[in-house]
Amino acid sequence: MQQNSAKSKAMAVFFAGLLPVIAFTVIEDQYGTIAGLIAGMVFGVGEICFELYKHKKVQKITWIGNGLLLVLGGVSLISDEGIWFKMQPAIMEAAFAIALWVSWYIKKPLIVVLAEQQGQKLPEFMKTRMSGMTFRMGIFFAAHAVLATWAALHWTSNAWALLKGVGLTVSLIVYMLLEVLYIRRSAMKALTPEQIAEQIKKIQEEQLNQ
Q1: pTM for this prediction
Q2: What is the distance in angstroms between the CA of the first residue and the CA of the last residue of the chain?
Q3: What are the Cα distances from residue 9, in Å, to 3, 63, 177?
Q4: What is the number of other CB atoms lying within 10 angstroms of the CB of residue 188?
Q5: Burial track 87-109 (b if 16+ CB lie within 10 A, e otherwise)
Q6: Is the dihedral of CA 102, 106, 111, 113 positive or negative?
Protein backbone atom coordinates (compact mmCIF):
# COMPACT_ATOMS: atom_id res chain seq x y z
CA MET A 1 0.00 0.00 0.00
CA GLN A 2 2.85 2.39 0.86
CA GLN A 3 4.54 1.65 -2.46
CA ASN A 4 1.33 2.47 -4.33
CA SER A 5 0.99 5.67 -2.32
CA ALA A 6 4.58 6.66 -3.07
CA LYS A 7 4.08 5.92 -6.76
CA SER A 8 0.90 7.98 -6.97
CA LYS A 9 2.56 10.90 -5.18
CA ALA A 10 5.52 10.77 -7.56
CA MET A 11 3.16 10.72 -10.55
CA ALA A 12 1.29 13.68 -9.10
CA VAL A 13 4.48 15.71 -8.76
CA PHE A 14 5.38 15.08 -12.41
CA PHE A 15 1.96 15.38 -14.04
CA ALA A 16 -0.21 17.53 -11.74
CA GLY A 17 -1.78 20.28 -13.83
CA LEU A 18 -0.58 18.86 -17.15
CA LEU A 19 -4.04 18.30 -18.68
CA PRO A 20 -5.14 21.91 -18.01
CA VAL A 21 -1.94 23.13 -19.68
CA ILE A 22 -2.61 21.00 -22.77
CA ALA A 23 -6.24 22.13 -22.89
CA PHE A 24 -5.26 25.79 -22.59
CA THR A 25 -2.63 25.50 -25.32
CA VAL A 26 -4.85 23.69 -27.83
CA ILE A 27 -7.97 25.81 -27.28
CA GLU A 28 -6.08 29.12 -27.13
CA ASP A 29 -4.44 28.36 -30.48
CA GLN A 30 -7.85 27.79 -32.11
CA TYR A 31 -10.24 30.10 -30.28
CA GLY A 32 -8.20 32.70 -28.38
CA THR A 33 -6.96 33.42 -24.85
CA ILE A 34 -10.32 33.62 -23.03
CA ALA A 35 -11.52 30.27 -24.42
CA GLY A 36 -8.15 28.71 -23.61
CA LEU A 37 -8.28 29.98 -20.02
CA ILE A 38 -11.80 28.63 -19.50
CA ALA A 39 -10.81 25.25 -20.95
CA GLY A 40 -7.72 25.09 -18.74
CA MET A 41 -9.70 25.93 -15.61
CA VAL A 42 -12.42 23.39 -16.45
CA PHE A 43 -9.79 20.69 -16.88
CA GLY A 44 -8.21 21.77 -13.59
CA VAL A 45 -11.49 21.18 -11.77
CA GLY A 46 -11.94 17.93 -13.72
CA GLU A 47 -8.52 16.70 -12.61
CA ILE A 48 -9.44 17.26 -8.96
CA CYS A 49 -12.83 15.54 -9.39
CA PHE A 50 -11.29 12.57 -11.20
CA GLU A 51 -8.69 12.01 -8.48
CA LEU A 52 -11.39 12.28 -5.81
CA TYR A 53 -13.55 9.74 -7.66
CA LYS A 54 -10.70 7.30 -8.32
CA HIS A 55 -8.79 7.48 -5.02
CA LYS A 56 -11.54 8.78 -2.69
CA LYS A 57 -9.23 11.66 -1.75
CA VAL A 58 -7.21 14.41 -3.41
CA GLN A 59 -3.49 14.73 -2.78
CA LYS A 60 -2.11 18.00 -1.46
CA ILE A 61 0.03 18.53 -4.56
CA THR A 62 -3.11 18.30 -6.72
CA TRP A 63 -5.00 20.77 -4.53
CA ILE A 64 -2.08 23.19 -4.51
CA GLY A 65 -1.23 22.91 -8.21
CA ASN A 66 -4.75 23.11 -9.56
CA GLY A 67 -5.90 25.56 -6.88
CA LEU A 68 -3.11 27.93 -7.89
CA LEU A 69 -3.98 27.33 -11.53
CA LEU A 70 -7.63 28.27 -10.91
CA VAL A 71 -6.70 31.42 -8.98
CA LEU A 72 -4.23 32.56 -11.63
CA GLY A 73 -6.69 31.59 -14.35
CA GLY A 74 -9.29 33.83 -12.70
CA VAL A 75 -6.83 36.71 -12.56
CA SER A 76 -6.02 36.13 -16.23
CA LEU A 77 -9.72 36.24 -17.14
CA ILE A 78 -10.23 39.50 -15.27
CA SER A 79 -7.14 41.11 -16.79
CA ASP A 80 -7.63 39.46 -20.19
CA GLU A 81 -3.98 38.36 -20.05
CA GLY A 82 -3.00 34.68 -20.26
CA ILE A 83 0.38 35.40 -18.69
CA TRP A 84 -0.88 34.82 -15.12
CA PHE A 85 -2.16 31.36 -16.00
CA LYS A 86 1.23 30.56 -17.55
CA MET A 87 3.05 31.59 -14.36
CA GLN A 88 1.66 28.61 -12.40
CA PRO A 89 4.57 26.22 -13.17
CA ALA A 90 7.15 28.89 -12.27
CA ILE A 91 5.45 29.68 -8.95
CA MET A 92 5.15 25.97 -8.05
CA GLU A 93 8.82 25.32 -8.85
CA ALA A 94 9.99 28.40 -6.93
CA ALA A 95 7.91 27.35 -3.90
CA PHE A 96 9.39 23.85 -4.03
CA ALA A 97 12.92 25.29 -4.22
CA ILE A 98 12.26 27.43 -1.15
CA ALA A 99 10.78 24.44 0.74
CA LEU A 100 13.89 22.37 -0.07
CA TRP A 101 16.25 25.13 1.08
CA VAL A 102 14.32 25.81 4.30
CA SER A 103 14.25 22.10 5.17
CA TRP A 104 18.01 21.91 4.53
CA TYR A 105 18.65 24.99 6.68
CA ILE A 106 16.70 23.65 9.67
CA LYS A 107 18.51 20.30 9.26
CA LYS A 108 15.38 18.35 8.33
CA PRO A 109 16.07 17.68 4.63
CA LEU A 110 12.80 17.26 2.76
CA ILE A 111 14.13 14.37 0.65
CA VAL A 112 15.05 12.42 3.80
CA VAL A 113 11.74 13.24 5.52
CA LEU A 114 9.68 12.11 2.52
CA ALA A 115 11.66 8.86 2.25
CA GLU A 116 11.16 8.09 5.94
CA GLN A 117 7.44 8.88 5.72
CA GLN A 118 7.20 6.09 3.14
CA GLY A 119 8.77 3.68 5.64
CA GLN A 120 12.28 3.75 4.15
CA LYS A 121 15.12 3.19 6.61
CA LEU A 122 18.20 5.05 5.39
CA PRO A 123 21.79 4.39 6.46
CA GLU A 124 23.55 7.37 8.05
CA PHE A 125 25.90 7.85 5.10
CA MET A 126 22.84 8.16 2.82
CA LYS A 127 21.14 10.69 5.12
CA THR A 128 24.26 12.87 5.09
CA ARG A 129 24.53 12.85 1.32
CA MET A 130 20.81 13.31 0.76
CA SER A 131 21.03 16.47 2.84
CA GLY A 132 23.42 17.91 0.27
CA MET A 133 21.16 16.60 -2.47
CA THR A 134 18.24 18.54 -0.94
CA PHE A 135 20.17 21.81 -1.26
CA ARG A 136 21.29 21.08 -4.82
CA MET A 137 17.79 20.08 -5.87
CA GLY A 138 16.63 23.46 -4.57
CA ILE A 139 19.08 25.07 -6.99
CA PHE A 140 17.71 22.89 -9.80
CA PHE A 141 14.10 23.94 -9.17
CA ALA A 142 15.06 27.60 -8.70
CA ALA A 143 16.85 27.58 -12.07
CA HIS A 144 13.86 25.86 -13.66
CA ALA A 145 11.52 28.45 -12.11
CA VAL A 146 13.56 31.21 -13.76
CA LEU A 147 13.37 29.38 -17.10
CA ALA A 148 9.61 28.80 -16.68
CA THR A 149 9.12 32.51 -15.95
CA TRP A 150 11.05 33.43 -19.10
CA ALA A 151 8.99 30.92 -21.09
CA ALA A 152 5.72 32.38 -19.76
CA LEU A 153 6.79 35.90 -20.70
CA HIS A 154 8.52 35.36 -24.01
CA TRP A 155 7.85 31.91 -25.49
CA THR A 156 4.88 30.77 -27.55
CA SER A 157 2.14 28.84 -25.75
CA ASN A 158 3.21 25.62 -27.49
CA ALA A 159 6.84 26.00 -26.40
CA TRP A 160 5.74 26.92 -22.85
CA ALA A 161 3.50 23.83 -22.65
CA LEU A 162 6.33 21.64 -23.94
CA LEU A 163 8.59 22.92 -21.18
CA LYS A 164 5.92 22.16 -18.57
CA GLY A 165 4.96 18.74 -19.94
CA VAL A 166 8.29 17.35 -21.15
CA GLY A 167 11.12 19.71 -20.26
CA LEU A 168 10.79 19.49 -16.47
CA THR A 169 10.30 15.72 -16.44
CA VAL A 170 13.23 14.93 -18.73
CA SER A 171 15.62 17.38 -17.09
CA LEU A 172 14.67 16.12 -13.61
CA ILE A 173 15.28 12.49 -14.64
CA VAL A 174 18.71 13.41 -16.04
CA TYR A 175 19.52 15.42 -12.92
CA MET A 176 18.48 12.57 -10.60
CA LEU A 177 20.65 10.08 -12.52
CA LEU A 178 23.64 12.41 -12.11
CA GLU A 179 22.83 12.79 -8.39
CA VAL A 180 22.71 9.02 -7.88
CA LEU A 181 26.07 8.60 -9.60
CA TYR A 182 27.58 11.43 -7.54
CA ILE A 183 26.24 10.09 -4.22
CA ARG A 184 27.44 6.59 -5.02
CA ARG A 185 30.91 7.82 -5.96
CA SER A 186 31.26 10.08 -2.90
CA ALA A 187 30.05 7.29 -0.59
CA MET A 188 32.62 4.86 -2.01
CA LYS A 189 35.36 7.44 -1.43
CA ALA A 190 34.32 8.27 2.15
CA LEU A 191 33.52 4.74 3.35
CA THR A 192 34.94 1.30 2.79
CA PRO A 193 32.64 -1.39 1.34
CA GLU A 194 32.71 -3.06 4.75
CA GLN A 195 31.46 0.10 6.49
CA ILE A 196 28.66 0.51 3.97
CA ALA A 197 27.68 -3.15 4.33
CA GLU A 198 27.71 -2.81 8.13
CA GLN A 199 25.32 0.17 8.08
CA ILE A 200 22.98 -1.60 5.65
CA LYS A 201 23.05 -4.74 7.81
CA LYS A 202 22.17 -2.66 10.86
CA ILE A 203 19.14 -1.23 9.06
CA GLN A 204 17.99 -4.71 8.00
CA GLU A 205 18.29 -6.00 11.58
CA GLU A 206 16.22 -3.08 12.88
CA GLN A 207 13.51 -3.86 10.32
CA LEU A 208 13.45 -7.53 11.29
CA ASN A 209 13.10 -6.64 14.98
CA GLN A 210 10.11 -4.37 14.39
Answers
A1: 0.74
A2: 18
A3: 10, 12, 20
A4: 11
A5: bbbbbbbbebbeebbebbeeeeb
A6: negative
Q: Rounded distance, CA 181 to CA 137, Å? A: 15
Q: pLDDT tens digits for the chain (210 residues)?
A: 444 444 455 455 545 567 788 888 888 888 888 888 888 889 888 888 888 888 788 777 778 788 888 888 888 888 877 888 999 889 989 999 999 999 999 988 888 887 777 766 666 767 777 888 899 999 999 999 999 999 999 999 889 988 987 888 899 899 999 988 887 777 666 655 655 566 555 555 555 555
Give the closest residue to 23 by CA, choosing from 66, 55, 59, 53. 66
Provide Rg for the chain, Cα atoms. 20
Give the torsion sign (CA, 24, 29, 30, 34). Answer: positive
Residue count (the chain): 210
Within 10 A of 49 (CB to CB), how many other CB atoms are there? Answer: 11
Cα(74)–Cα(79) distance, integer angstroms: 9
Report in angstroms the alpha-carbon separations of 14 from 168, 173, 180, 192.
8, 10, 19, 36
